[in-house]
What we know:
alpha/beta
Amino acid sequence: MKKEKFKNPSDDQINNLLLRVRTIAIIGLSPNPDRPSYQVAKKLRQFGYRIIPVRMAVESVLGEKAYPDLRSVPDKIDLVDVFRDPQFVDAIVDDCMDLWLPALWLQEGVVDDNAAIRAQLSGIDVVMDKCIYKEYVACFGEDFRLPKA
């Protein structure tokens, strides 16, 4: 039996997702300004997204209260952005499904075809192995800011 391969949404679907989202929980957001997760989160905030850090043993990142896991976040989440090793993706998908979260973004290098397909089959919009910052800039340019919701 042939193993199914994950397929990312089209560019138009990604554009629409980026316009629809307002609050992004970032799993693995580092408090270190030299880390890619920090730089991406900082840019996403400048573009108009609300950032919720999800990282154990950290009180805050970029001035935002951090939570140890998705289940601890009291606010509505529009998208989960993952900066974690692929071995953790399956459990993250479980949390997204249990919490009825609408979208999951797996950053460059974060690849788990089976977990991504499972999330898609449950109705979650999934983007995998792409940088959300690069996709935003490719779609809208560096100077575009989201309209206030």
